[in-house]
Design brief:
Helix content: 25-40%
Strand content: 15-25%
Shape: elongated
Structural class: alpha+beta
Radius of gyration: 26 Å
Number of strands: 28
Number of helices: 13
Distance between the termini: 27 Å
């Protein structure tokens, strides 16, 4: 039985791709850059538009006027005179077919130098045309399966030239090609699968995924399938420095795994795809350094260490364990315990000044809230959110140590957690708000950033008067669409100011969870409902205008999709469905 086509979406917002692939089909060819044509865009060695894909008018040979339609298994260019369709046969191969309309596959870069661009030639051994890309270090092979080649430009050309080929229908009015991304060589392309078989297989693959990760979905959660597609299509197979199957933050320009973003994807995947969820949690830990620090980000050919990210991993792992369908083995618990312990010790040693009880950030980037107004006076700061996250991580370590029968370590982690929480309240709580302190001078200040209120993540561990005061302050950040990261009345509020105003998914999930655990159910319900409605109306952008709801920056961000799935699932279960 053929799976349903799945949700339709705009390729201007969400790239067309498949589970495991390192390339997508999209007009987004660079950060905030949209091309007229759809391109094959690879994410190996960075984000690079390699091939330009152009439906052609068979009468004139020029670009055909088309509209593009996309569902999880099939991408189509539709014109009055014909149709071109594309589907993934495998993570590294797409098949295309057309009737009436012709089609061109051209190098995106016209100029070839000894260090950049795309070389093009006909490979006699493979019976195919090959593009080799300096930028990706990969080859892109085009094999004609039916139809005729009506144009071949730039074969073996150097310097500036048009490079590529155009195909047209044969006597029965159709054509078909395969495009593969490969390393150096492989046998000539052969496949017994028909195009319709490939579409059905792709649809079945997505249907199995969405049934696994969102079996609870209904008409009351209308964005669940599209959220699942954003996750499914952004997943890449292990290649390069990505040591295990990884969910990139996006297959637009945010094509990395950052060391706190991955936690939200792990949580969303946990019940239905537990192995993939554990892979997401551990992927940055595979690159943990000798100090215990996690990298800032990981992608195909780059691990960045100039910043870190906040220690939300204890909070995340506690939730992850509870969401997994089966308990973790002792070996799995031990591996995670050791990794979390080293990460925690990094904050307790490398990020605490001599004699200090509380750790500090070296820059806003370390917090994940890069340019939040908390960091306007100084960047080297002791903040309440960092201490709160560390307390939760220490408590999770104590819980793990108890399961692993390490009583002395239970005592150690519990003691340090209590010491840091006491210091947090004694040194940064003024009675009506948390302040930030300079790591150098000891000066303190407050801001209108939601970051100052993030100690609500301590939930049930907070004194009731503190959590109630934080809840009241959090309410002031609510707009019709969710939690603004800077008060909209602040003189520093910016509609598209990154962490100086827009609504973000991770802040929403962390605040909602903390409020709920602190007993502020009604406010947590309200925040969840507004964010879910935001995603259902405006999609899964990196962040959103707090006053209009408009999606901002990268429009296909996986932690946003995962946050929707988390909140929608929890609401569904609370609602009794």
């Amino acid at each position: 039985m053929t799976a349903a086509p799945g949700p339709a979406f705009s390729v201007h917002d969400i790239p067309f791709s498949t589970f495991g692939s390192w390339f997508d089909i999209s007009p987004v060819v660079a950060e905030k850059t949209y091309a007229e044509d759809l391109h094959l865009v690879s994410h190996q060695n960075g984000m690079h538009a390699v091939l330009r894909l152009v439906p052609l008018d068979p009468a004139t040979g020029g670009r055909a006027a088309t509209r593009v339609e996309a569902t999880p298994g099939l991408l189509s260019w539709i014109s009055d005179g014909g149709r071109v369709e594309l589907a993934y046969e495998s993570p590294d191969t797409v098949r295309l077919r057309g009737n009436k309309s012709g089609f061109g596959v051209f190098a995106a870069a016209r100029t070839l130098t000894p260090f950049s661009g795309t070389y093009f030639f006909h490979d006699a051994a493979a019976g195919a045309h090959v593009f080799t890309s300096y930028e990706t270090g990969r080859r892109y092979r085009v094999t004609l399966l039916s139809g005729t080649i009506v144009e071949e430009a730039g074969d073996q050309a150097l310097g500036s030239a048009d490079r590529g080929l155009a195909v047209a229908a044969d006597a029965v009015g159709a054509w078909e090609i395969a495009i593969e991304e490969l390393d150096t060589a492989r046998p000539p392309y052969r496949s017994a699968a028909t195009f319709d078989d490939i579409v059905e297989f792709a649809r079945d693959g997505f249907a199995e995924f969405v049934d696994a990760v969102a079996p609870w979905r209904s008409s009351a959660t209308p964005a669940a399938e599209l959220a699942a597609y954003v996750l499914w299509s952004a997943t890449v197979r292990p290649t390069g420095l990505v040591t295990r199957p990884g969910v990139l933050m996006s297959k637009h320009w945010m094509d990395k795994v950052w060391s706190w973003d991955h936690c939200f994807n792990a949580l969303a995947l946990a019940p239905g795809a537990p192995e993939l969820a554990l892979d997401q949690f551990h992927l940055p830990f595979d690159h943990q350094d000798d100090s215990g620090a996690l990298p800032d980000s990981v992608t195909h050919s780059e691990v960045l260490r100039n910043f870190v990210k906040p220690p939300i991993h204890g909070w995340a792992f506690g939730h992850l364990r509870r969401r997994l369908p089966t308990p973790l083995t002792g070996a799995q618990l031990m591996e995670t315990y050791d990794r979390l312990a080293r990460w925690t010790d990094f904050w307790l040693t490398a990020r605490r000044a001599p004699g200090a009880e509380l750790p500090y950030y070296q820059h806003g980037n370390d917090s994940g809230w890069d340019n939040a107004t908390t960091f306007d006076p100084e960047r080297m700061v002791v903040t309440a959110d960092l201490a709160a996250f560390l307390v939760l991580q220490l408590r999770e370590l104590a819980s793990l140590a108890e399961e692993l029968d390490r009583p002395h370590e239970v005592s150690r982690w519990t003691r340090v957690a209590e010491e840091i929480q006491t210091a947090l309240l004694d040194q940064l709580w003024t009675g009506d708000r948390f302040v930030t302190r300079s790591a150098g001078t000891g000066d303190t200040w407050s801001s209108d950033s939601l970051l100052d209120l993030m100690p609500i993540v301590l939930g049930e561990h907070l004194p009731a008067p503190v959590s109630s005061t934080l809840a009241d302050r959090i309410k002031a950040h609510l707009t019709p669409y969710g939690l603004a990261t800077e008060l909209t009345t602040s003189p520093h509020y910016l509609a598209d100011g990154y962490w100086r105003g827009p609504i973000w998914a991770p802040a929403t999930v962390l605040v909602e969870d903390g409020l709920r655990r602190a007993g502020h159910q009604r406010l947590a319900d309200d925040i969840s409902a507004r964010f879910r409605a935001l995603c259902e109306t405006h999609g899964f952008a990196e962040n959103f205008d707090a006053l209009t709801g408009t999606g901002l920056r990268d429009r296909a961000y996986t932690w946003t999709a995962s946050s929707y799935l988390l909140l929608a699932e929890a609401h569904t279960h609370r609602d009794g469905h």
